[in-house]
Write a structure and sequence with these properties.
There is one protein chain. The chain is mainly α. It contains 17 helices and no strands. The relative contact order is 0.08. The protein folds into two domains: about 190 residues, no CATH class; about 220 residues, no CATH class. The chain is about 85% helix and about 0% strand.
């Protein structure tokens, strides 16, 4: 980075142009830091602010255009030849092309703020043959907004840029991610607006106009929603506590409470318990979950879909939240939240939920709940005992995964409820 700054001081606009061009072709260059430094140089009078913006924009436009045409000329033949091996046949490519032509232009505007997305967005635009005119309008505006944002920040802060650089970059990236998620959510809802509209009307009618119908189902969904909200509040409180380093007493208390495990005789038992989070054991629990769903013979595809979403979502959530916290806060525990705990709790919880959901014997449910709580407690103790995990990290893993699983359960029961309402509506119309 120092060498790049030195070249920028020596050759100015040419280095700026080439750097932005290479960055948007796919060469990993820390362009945000570079653009901010250009703003500082403009503040010091060593570079012209307008010429800097034009050079950066021209370089970014050139790089984005090269990526677009590379995808257009090389990506399409590759997909046509090898796409079937990647589950990207002609039909799927045609659907993707229609979707991207409709919504991809909006994503191009914000893609440059999100790390790693800008390269993919330009290449993908070429692969699905987004009209060059549409690509150019939205992509080039996005390039100038991105370059101008960082250059003007560096210019406004001037010599104080070094003091605030890391914090500003963190919050800009976070803002880009949140905005990207919001845009994707908007696009998904808009693409399924008819289904969403019909579902909202059905739920409204069943809730307020026919209060007594499906009463138990509605109470169940309400209970899950309340539990979900409580867990979110607890998760937010835990985040505040970890940022403010308020977990010291909790960790000390847990370690003191587990002092009786200092005897070597416990080591074998703890090894066995901690192995519950191994790939083999979690795979076995997943297979059992699938069997429970299949044996129930009701809403099989829906429950399997949400089970898959639970597993994949836990994977993305655990790595994503871990990266985000350590990107934003460098002084928190390296393992916060504990990833193995998240996987263990998510898969085990979904398994027990399916067991409890499909068995009406309250005595069996009671003992299942006791077994579930015992396994959670035993695993928590084994993690602290064996791998010396911070109790707060383990607890965060439990709470974060509980938020995800309860959210999936709320969505599952809501979809199940909508299915029941539609079935009743169809039955009434047939009569």
């Amino acid at each position: 980075m120092t060498a790049l700054f030195h070249l920028l001081n020596e050759y100015g606009y040419i280095v700026l142009f080439v750097s932005l061009m290479l960055q948007l072709i796919i060469v990993p260059i820390p362009s945000e830091a570079l653009l901010s430094y250009v703003g500082v140089l403009a503040f010091q009078g060593k570079m012209n602010l307008i010429l800097s913006l034009l050079s950066a924009g021209a370089g970014g436009i050139t790089g984005a255009s090269i990526s677009y045409w590379a995808g257009y000329k090389l990506g399409v033949p590759f997909i046509q030849k090898y796409g079937r091996y990647l589950h990207m046949g002609p039909e799927k490519m045609a659907k993707m092309e229609v979707w991207y032509k409709k919504y991809g232009k909006v994503l191009l505007l914000i893609s440059y703020i999100i790390p790693g997305i800008c390269h993919i967005a330009s290449i993908l635009s070429g692969i699905i043959k987004l009209p060059y005119r549409s690509f150019a309008i939205f992509s080039y505006i996005g390039v100038f907004l991105w370059a101008g944002l960082y250059i003007f920040l560096g210019y406004l802060l001037g010599p104080k840029w070094d003091q605030y650089q890391s914090e500003i970059e963190k919050w800009l990236v976070l803002g880009g991610i949140v905005l990207g998620i919001g845009v994707i959510a908007f696009i998904v809802i808009k693409a399924n607006r008819q289904y969403v509209k019909e579902s909202i009307i059905l739920i409204f009618q069943a809730t307020f106009k026919r209060f007594g119908s499906f009463f138990k189902t509605k109470i169940l969904i309400l209970e899950i929603l309340v539990f979900f909200a409580i867990l979110i509040a607890l998760m937010v409180r835990m985040i505040q506590a970890i940022i403010n380093h308020q977990f010291g007493q909790f960790n000390t208390f847990c370690l003191n409470a587990m002092s009786f495990l200092s005897s070597p005789g416990w080591h074998g038992i703890m090894n066995t318990v901690y192995a519950l989070s191994s790939v083999k054991v979690l795979s076995a629990i997943s297979v059992l979950t699938v069997l429970v769903i299949a044996l129930n013979k009701k809403n099989i595809l829906l429950e399997l879909l949400f089970f898959a979403c639970t597993i994949v979502g836990t994977l993305l959530f655990s790595f994503g939240i871990h990266w985000l916290f350590h990107f934003l806060f460098s002084d928190i525990s390296a393992q916060f939240p504990d990833a193995p705990s998240m996987f263990f709790v998510s898969i085990l919880s979904f398994f027990f939920i399916m067991l409890i959901r499909h068995y009406r014997n309250y005595q069996v449910i009671f003992f299942l709940m006791l077994g579930y709580l015992f396994m959670l407690t035993a695993y928590f103790i084994s993690g602290v005992y064996l791998v010396h995990a911070e109790p707060s990290d383990m607890m965060a893993g439990y709470v974060f995964s509980a938020v995800w699983v309860s959210g999936m359960l709320f969505a599952l029961e809501t979809f199940r409820f909508i299915s029941l309402l539609k079935r009743e509506l169809n039955h009434s119309s047939e009569q």
